[in-house]
């Protein structure tokens, strides 16, 4: 489910939810930060669609679909 959330995020925003110069920094961002909402990059993304992506990308697996 998490991977599907990443794909949906990329399709909606046109960019990856996390960007880093090395794998360690990327892993740190994934574990410790939330991505910017897709609507920050594409204002036409609706709040309900953002909620779906956010739930799919939840850090807690039990909160995903």
What would you note in describing this structure?
There is one protein chain. With 65 residues, this protein is mostly helical. The protein has one domain (2-63). The protein is built from three helices and no strands. The protein has helices at residues 2-13, 23-32, 47-56. Helix 1 (2-13) runs antiparallel to helix 3. The model has no long low-confidence stretch (mean pLDDT 97).
Count of strand segments: 0
What is the general shape?
globular
The number of domains: 1
Tally of alpha and pi helices? 3
Helix % is: 40-55%
Q: State which percent range the strand residues make up.
A: under 5%
Rg from alpha-carbon coordinates: 12 Å
The major sheet is characterized as: none
- Helix/sheet category: mainly alpha
Report the average pLDDT across residues: 97
Q: What string gives the helices and strands in order?
A: HHH
Distance between the termini: 7 Å
Uncertain runs: none
């Amino acid at each position: 489910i998490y991977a599907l959330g990443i794909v949906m995020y990329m399709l909606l925003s046109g960019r990856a939810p996390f960007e880093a110069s090395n794998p360690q920094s990327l892993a740190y961002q994934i574990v410790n930060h939330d991505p910017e909402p897709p609507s920050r990059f594409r204002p036409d993304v609706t709040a309900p669609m953002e909620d779906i992506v956010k739930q799919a990308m939840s850090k807690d697996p039990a909160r995903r679909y």
